[in-house]
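lol ok so funny story. i was supposed to be doing the assay writeup but got distracted and ended up predicting the structure for this chain instead. priorities right. anyway since i did it might as well share w the group, maybe its usefull for someone
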Amino acid sequence: MRSKWAPFVLMYLAGFSGATAAQTPDQQRCFSPDPDVSIGGCTAMISSGQETQESLARVLFSRGTAYLRTSQIDRAIADFDQVIGLYPNEPTGFNNRGVAYGEKGQYDRAIADFDLAIQLDPNGVDVLSNRGGAYAGKGQYDRAIEDYDQAIRLNPNFIKAWYNRGNAYARKSQFDRAIADFDEAIQLGPNFAPAFTDRGIAYADKGQYDRAIVDHDQAIRLNPNYPEAFNNRGYAYAHKGQYDRAIVDFDQAIQLNANFIKAWYNRGNAYARKGQFDRAIADFDEAIRVNPNFAEAFYNRGLAHTYKDEYDRAIEDFDQTIRLKPSLAEAFGDRGATYALKGQYDRAIKDYDEAIRFNPNYAQAFDNRGIAFRALGHQDRAAADFAKARLLNPNLPP
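and the output, tada:
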């Protein structure tokens, strides 16, 4: 499971003077590294009404950052709004509000704030990296790479910019360039576990599963509580056909994070490959519990039900898949195949028609539609579909 980018970088109000040496108990709480403690202390200070403008801005900023760290995003934004109102020429308020909008997936609003922060400080490498992350969130990887390029020019030792650019190249399927950037990130930060596991994913994308496993091993050595590394190593083992070994890693990922949807999904796929369809279905159930809109989990659960000859339950899952992804040709194709197994060939043909409409090169759909036409006695139409299927895929059986 590839990260889109390293986490957004929060900034601090470095432009303001430091806190006084002798702090009150509320000040000590407000600037505590524990976000829950910080929120309580800062709230008490704000409620006192005794803070100077500079002190109030610092306290609001600290509380906003603590809200952000505890996923209270709207409250964080409200505090950063006030900071910006007090100090509109300070880039840190815009940066951290942009981070908050980015965490909400509101990338355009995040980019607008990062733009303002960069206008105030054109050499802010953290903000450039953050804006690159927001562009990556929008799928605008070339634009993201431009920001990472600029951050690297300003600070060639900025690990996260190398790492983020590597992920952007990976999203563009430029895996060699991605690996080169992860190499740089690892050289600068030999203990930065995410760079190892994402380089491992890039190697896996190139089909170099053994090299991928070596990188995931290193990520796990650096951080034994890193569920993504266990999931990614399991994914590599599964692609080598070592399903039992993969399941061990997926187990560990789930133990570390019970809501790790990709680990449930991947373990379900591994069990399905072993023919253990009941266990696969149970894992797809969990993936759907975590994300009721996870179309691929419905689709693969439908396939598992089909293998168990539970055709009506399979069709229900394919229905749900199509509702979530209306243009997924494979869902139409497999729902059609399930209707054909029930002997409902007219209904199957309608689904094959849709599958072919969405993917005119879908050889198996042509072949299956030919089988349905033949079952209904339409020999000429069947022959045409069989010919088309083998034109698209000469390796289909006769």
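Residues 268 and 280 are 4 Å apart (CA to CA). The radius of gyration is 26 Å.
back to the writeup now i swear
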